[in-house]
Amino acid sequence: MKKLFIFKFMATALVAIVMLYPFWSATRNEAGSTGVLESLEAMGFFTTSAIVAAFILGVALYCRSLQKCLSLVQPSCQAMNPKMVWLMFVPFYNLVEDFFIILNVTRSIEQEAQSNKHLEVMNSFGRVSGFGWCIAQVASLFPSFLGVAASFIALILWVVHWRLIIKVNALLMIDGLDAKST
Fold it and tell me: What's the pLDDT at 1?
Protein backbone atom coordinates (compact mmCIF):
# COMPACT_ATOMS: atom_id res chain seq x y z
CA MET A 1 0.00 0.00 0.00
CA LYS A 2 2.83 2.37 0.87
CA LYS A 3 4.61 1.60 -2.43
CA LEU A 4 1.40 2.30 -4.34
CA PHE A 5 1.02 5.65 -2.56
CA ILE A 6 4.62 6.60 -3.38
CA PHE A 7 4.11 5.57 -7.02
CA LYS A 8 0.91 7.62 -7.30
CA PHE A 9 2.58 10.62 -5.63
CA MET A 10 5.62 10.52 -7.92
CA ALA A 11 3.51 10.00 -11.06
CA THR A 12 1.24 12.89 -10.05
CA ALA A 13 4.26 15.16 -9.48
CA LEU A 14 5.55 14.29 -12.96
CA VAL A 15 2.13 14.98 -14.52
CA ALA A 16 1.92 18.32 -12.69
CA ILE A 17 5.36 19.37 -13.94
CA VAL A 18 4.49 18.46 -17.53
CA MET A 19 1.11 20.19 -17.38
CA LEU A 20 2.39 23.34 -15.68
CA TYR A 21 5.49 23.74 -17.85
CA PRO A 22 3.77 25.97 -20.45
CA PHE A 23 2.76 28.38 -17.68
CA TRP A 24 6.31 29.10 -16.53
CA SER A 25 8.14 28.57 -19.80
CA ALA A 26 8.31 31.58 -22.05
CA THR A 27 10.10 29.64 -24.77
CA ARG A 28 8.59 29.14 -28.18
CA ASN A 29 8.86 26.04 -30.33
CA GLU A 30 10.40 25.97 -33.81
CA ALA A 31 7.19 27.31 -35.35
CA GLY A 32 7.16 30.25 -32.93
CA SER A 33 4.20 28.92 -30.94
CA THR A 34 3.97 28.73 -27.15
CA GLY A 35 1.60 25.77 -27.38
CA VAL A 36 -1.61 25.27 -25.46
CA LEU A 37 -1.65 28.75 -23.93
CA GLU A 38 -1.52 30.35 -27.36
CA SER A 39 -4.31 28.06 -28.55
CA LEU A 40 -6.51 28.97 -25.59
CA GLU A 41 -5.86 32.66 -26.12
CA ALA A 42 -6.73 32.37 -29.82
CA MET A 43 -10.10 30.73 -29.03
CA GLY A 44 -11.10 33.52 -26.70
CA PHE A 45 -12.41 33.54 -23.16
CA PHE A 46 -16.03 32.57 -23.87
CA THR A 47 -15.24 29.73 -26.26
CA THR A 48 -12.60 28.35 -23.90
CA SER A 49 -15.00 28.67 -20.95
CA ALA A 50 -17.76 26.86 -22.85
CA ILE A 51 -15.42 24.01 -23.81
CA VAL A 52 -14.16 23.67 -20.23
CA ALA A 53 -17.72 23.75 -18.83
CA ALA A 54 -18.90 21.10 -21.32
CA PHE A 55 -15.90 18.93 -20.46
CA ILE A 56 -16.53 19.22 -16.70
CA LEU A 57 -20.20 18.36 -17.21
CA GLY A 58 -19.21 15.35 -19.34
CA VAL A 59 -16.77 14.11 -16.71
CA ALA A 60 -19.40 14.53 -13.99
CA LEU A 61 -21.95 12.50 -15.97
CA TYR A 62 -19.31 9.86 -16.71
CA CYS A 63 -18.39 9.65 -13.02
CA ARG A 64 -22.06 9.27 -12.18
CA SER A 65 -22.30 6.36 -14.65
CA LEU A 66 -19.22 4.69 -13.14
CA GLN A 67 -20.52 5.21 -9.60
CA LYS A 68 -23.88 3.75 -10.60
CA CYS A 69 -22.14 0.75 -12.18
CA LEU A 70 -20.16 0.04 -9.03
CA SER A 71 -23.27 0.52 -6.89
CA LEU A 72 -25.25 -1.96 -9.01
CA VAL A 73 -22.73 -4.79 -8.70
CA GLN A 74 -22.96 -6.93 -5.60
CA PRO A 75 -21.00 -5.43 -2.70
CA SER A 76 -18.78 -8.52 -2.64
CA CYS A 77 -17.80 -7.80 -6.27
CA GLN A 78 -16.93 -4.13 -5.75
CA ALA A 79 -13.18 -3.65 -6.20
CA MET A 80 -13.49 -0.09 -4.89
CA ASN A 81 -15.94 2.18 -3.11
CA PRO A 82 -18.33 3.62 -5.75
CA LYS A 83 -17.75 7.19 -4.48
CA MET A 84 -14.02 6.94 -5.26
CA VAL A 85 -14.69 7.50 -8.99
CA TRP A 86 -15.04 11.20 -8.20
CA LEU A 87 -11.26 11.34 -7.77
CA MET A 88 -11.32 12.03 -11.51
CA PHE A 89 -11.84 15.65 -10.52
CA VAL A 90 -8.58 16.01 -8.56
CA PRO A 91 -6.25 18.04 -10.79
CA PHE A 92 -3.07 16.26 -11.93
CA TYR A 93 -3.79 13.23 -9.73
CA ASN A 94 -6.68 12.25 -11.98
CA LEU A 95 -4.37 11.32 -14.86
CA VAL A 96 -2.78 8.72 -12.58
CA GLU A 97 -5.88 7.62 -10.67
CA ASP A 98 -7.95 7.16 -13.84
CA PHE A 99 -5.95 3.99 -14.59
CA PHE A 100 -6.81 2.56 -11.16
CA ILE A 101 -10.47 3.56 -11.46
CA ILE A 102 -10.75 1.81 -14.84
CA LEU A 103 -8.95 -1.25 -13.45
CA ASN A 104 -11.26 -1.47 -10.43
CA VAL A 105 -14.47 -0.86 -12.39
CA THR A 106 -13.44 -3.55 -14.89
CA ARG A 107 -12.57 -5.99 -12.10
CA SER A 108 -15.92 -5.31 -10.43
CA ILE A 109 -17.87 -5.99 -13.63
CA GLU A 110 -15.84 -9.14 -14.32
CA GLN A 111 -16.53 -10.42 -10.80
CA GLU A 112 -20.23 -9.65 -11.16
CA ALA A 113 -20.34 -11.40 -14.55
CA GLN A 114 -19.34 -14.67 -12.92
CA SER A 115 -22.71 -14.88 -11.18
CA ASN A 116 -24.94 -12.56 -13.23
CA LYS A 117 -26.51 -14.17 -16.29
CA HIS A 118 -27.49 -10.81 -17.79
CA LEU A 119 -23.83 -9.92 -18.36
CA GLU A 120 -23.28 -13.03 -20.51
CA VAL A 121 -24.12 -10.96 -23.61
CA MET A 122 -21.11 -8.71 -23.03
CA ASN A 123 -18.02 -9.39 -25.13
CA SER A 124 -15.93 -6.85 -23.24
CA PHE A 125 -16.00 -5.23 -19.86
CA GLY A 126 -14.19 -2.06 -20.90
CA ARG A 127 -10.56 -2.87 -20.18
CA VAL A 128 -9.29 -1.98 -23.69
CA SER A 129 -11.36 1.16 -24.27
CA GLY A 130 -10.87 2.29 -20.66
CA PHE A 131 -7.11 1.90 -20.59
CA GLY A 132 -6.99 3.18 -24.16
CA TRP A 133 -8.51 6.52 -23.25
CA CYS A 134 -6.30 6.76 -20.14
CA ILE A 135 -3.13 6.19 -22.20
CA ALA A 136 -4.26 8.56 -24.95
CA GLN A 137 -5.10 11.17 -22.31
CA VAL A 138 -1.54 11.03 -20.99
CA ALA A 139 -0.16 11.12 -24.55
CA SER A 140 -2.25 14.24 -25.18
CA LEU A 141 0.17 16.10 -22.90
CA PHE A 142 2.85 15.89 -25.60
CA PRO A 143 3.17 19.04 -27.66
CA SER A 144 2.52 19.25 -31.40
CA PHE A 145 0.46 16.99 -33.61
CA LEU A 146 1.02 13.95 -31.37
CA GLY A 147 -0.77 15.61 -28.46
CA VAL A 148 -3.64 16.84 -30.60
CA ALA A 149 -4.12 13.42 -32.23
CA ALA A 150 -3.94 11.70 -28.83
CA SER A 151 -6.61 14.11 -27.51
CA PHE A 152 -9.03 13.09 -30.24
CA ILE A 153 -8.27 9.40 -29.73
CA ALA A 154 -8.78 9.81 -25.97
CA LEU A 155 -12.13 11.50 -26.54
CA ILE A 156 -13.33 8.76 -28.90
CA LEU A 157 -12.23 5.93 -26.58
CA TRP A 158 -13.73 7.74 -23.58
CA VAL A 159 -17.12 7.88 -25.32
CA VAL A 160 -16.80 4.20 -26.34
CA HIS A 161 -16.05 3.24 -22.74
CA TRP A 162 -18.86 5.40 -21.39
CA ARG A 163 -21.36 3.76 -23.76
CA LEU A 164 -20.16 0.34 -22.61
CA ILE A 165 -20.69 1.34 -18.97
CA ILE A 166 -24.20 2.59 -19.79
CA LYS A 167 -24.95 -0.80 -21.39
CA VAL A 168 -23.59 -2.66 -18.36
CA ASN A 169 -25.69 -0.45 -16.07
CA ALA A 170 -28.83 -1.26 -18.08
CA LEU A 171 -28.08 -4.98 -17.82
CA LEU A 172 -27.41 -4.71 -14.09
CA MET A 173 -30.67 -2.82 -13.60
CA ILE A 174 -32.53 -5.70 -15.30
CA ASP A 175 -31.05 -7.96 -12.67
CA GLY A 176 -32.30 -5.58 -9.98
CA LEU A 177 -35.79 -5.59 -11.50
CA ASP A 178 -35.74 -9.40 -11.62
CA ALA A 179 -34.89 -9.52 -7.92
CA LYS A 180 -37.76 -7.14 -7.06
CA SER A 181 -40.31 -9.16 -9.02
CA THR A 182 -39.53 -12.44 -7.25
Answer: 77
